[in-house]
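Tokens in:
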């Protein structure tokens, strides 16, 4: 039996940025929403992002092309895409929410506690975990979130690199 999440994963796995942008644009058109230049630019940013930008990150990038764009416009577009299940919002209690426009379904994340980078682990075992938990508990699963927190390799390297010594010469 193919589950809905499995179909979504198949549609989004290995999607190129242009293909993902077109899917987002098609979905908005199907739902009767306008494709303003600002929305188009924001969807291109989401489709081409390999990270998980915050609304402020997206706003900063968008303002380079559209200086009069407001942060409210970014949030309205993100909320619209969220309502259409085309973007995944990751909420954090002590940080800004982050957005994934390439994998808009629940999936595991690796989160660095130092630099706040978010990546996708290659964890095949997590694929059917939500269904298994629902089956064994009797819960009807609506959504789930699986995050792993640690220190990324880049931050680990920075910790182990010796600080360059500054030599002071006397006159």
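Residues out:
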């Amino acid at each position: 039996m193919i589950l809905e999440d499995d179909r979504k994963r198949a549609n989004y796995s290995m999607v190129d940025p242009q293909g993902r942008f077109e899917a987002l644009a098609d979905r908005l058109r199907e739902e009767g929403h306008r494709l303003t230049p600002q929305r188009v630019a924001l969807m291109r940013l989401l489709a081409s992002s390999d990270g998980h930008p915050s609304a402020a990150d997206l706003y900063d990038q968008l303002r380079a092309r559209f200086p009069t764009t407001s942060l409210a416009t970014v949030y309205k577009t993100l909320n619209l895409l969220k309502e259409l299940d085309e973007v995944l919002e990751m909420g954090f209690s002590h940080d800004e929410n982050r957005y994934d426009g390439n994998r808009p379904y629940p999936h595991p994340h690796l989160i660095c506690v130092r630099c706040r980078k978010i990546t996708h682990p290659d964890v095949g075992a997590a694929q059917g975990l939500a269904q298994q938990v629902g089956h064994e508990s009797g819960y009807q699963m609506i959504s789930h979130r699986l995050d792993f927190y640690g220190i990324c390799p880049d931050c680990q390297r920075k910790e182990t690199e010796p600080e360059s010594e500054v030599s002071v010469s006397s006159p």
